[in-house]
Design a protein that fits this description.
This protein is mainly α and about 290 residues long. The protein has one domain (about 70-285): MetI-like (MetI-like fold, Orthogonal Bundle). About 70% of the residues lie in helices and about 0% in strands. It has 14 helices and no strands. The longest helix has about 35 residues, at about 10-45.
Length: about 290
């Protein structure tokens, strides 16, 4: 007969605390590694150009150059382009959320002929790289004379997104059928059930989709570079092309200051809505 070694409560408590210490230590190390690029951008944004690429590396500037942030506004119309990008991103986020949620609601709650086949096509679109569709879409919009306008973003948002439709479908599948049946007994139609019952209870996935869709516009570089002229371009292109001297040499530290200003709104939005984002992503996989 094999004897098993028993662990007394004190040893169990010590082992539990040690395991928790290891978990937190790993999280802290990973967090520091992920934070290093952000930290480097912050300290580099207040350096002189002569200190940016020196060896050995000077981690902190000799004299902080806060004027780099002022130079961002002097070299570009930063606020105007940021406002333009923000409004377009907000419009795309709202329209994409509305259309994708309606499609996801239909796929989740109504079993009609062809429902599964159509949803399979939508899922298949997820594996198609966006770069493959870029040139055909540009040709279509060019023939419609919609280039150098914001209609490509608006029309794309009205059409919804395969990924967001999938997220909404998975989220709405978790709703109990009895909730819907009770609403039908009270005389509610499909659309009323959608916007009065399902949407108010879908705050996590709504926040997730809106932030992802907004980030898709705010952080986009390639699409505005192709569709828009310099006078109508968005912030991603402006930040990548504006900070050079007459000889074409980039102002490295001013570019870093501009990048800090560029990503700061996204960081703030994420920290304000991180609970909703995590809950929305986690709950979309509850039922298939």
């Amino acid at each position: 007969m094999i004897k098993t070694k028993t662990i007394n409560p004190t040893q169990a408590l010590v082992l539990k605390r040690f395991n928790r210490f290891l978990q937190y230590a790993v999280l802290v190390i990973v967090g520091l590694v992920l934070f290093m690029p952000v930290f480097w951008a912050l300290v580099s944004s207040i350096k002189q150009d002569s200190e940016y690429m020196t060896y050995p590396i000077h981690l902190f500037p000799t004299v902080p150059q806060w004027a780099n942030y002022v130079r961002v506004f002097e070299l570009t119309n930063f606020l105007e382009v940021a406002q333009r990008t923000f409004l377009l991103g907000l419009a795309v986020a709202v329209l994409t959320t509305i259309t994708s949620s309606m499609a996801g609601y239909g796929f989740a709650r109504y079993q009609v002929p062809g429902n599964k086949r159509l949803f399979s096509i939508i899922i298949a679109m997820l594996i198609v790289p966006g770069i493959v569709l870029l040139i055909p879409q540009f040709i279509v919009f060019a023939r419609l004379r919609l280039t150098n306008t914001y209609w490509p973003w608006i029309l794309g948002a009205i059409g919804g997104s395969s990924y967001y439709i999938f997220l909404f479908r998975q989220f709405f599948l978790a709703f109990p059928k009895e909730l819907e049946e009770a609403a039908e007994v009270d005389g509610c139609g499909p659309f009323r059930i959608y916007y009065q019952i399902f949407m108010p209870n879908a705050k996590p996935i709504l926040a997730t989709v809106m932030i992802f869709a907004f980030n898709g516009v705010w952080g986009d570089y390639l699409t505005p570079l192709i569709y828009l002229n310099a006078d109508k371009t968005l912030l991603g292109v402006k930040m990548a092309t504006a900070f050079v001297n007459p000889k074409g040499v980039p102002y490295q530290t001013i570019s870093m200051a501009a990048n800090v200003m560029y990503v700061l709104p996204l960081i703030v939005i994420f920290f304000l809505a991180q609970k909703h984002i995590l809950k929305g992503v986690i709950t979309t996989g509850l039922k298939g």
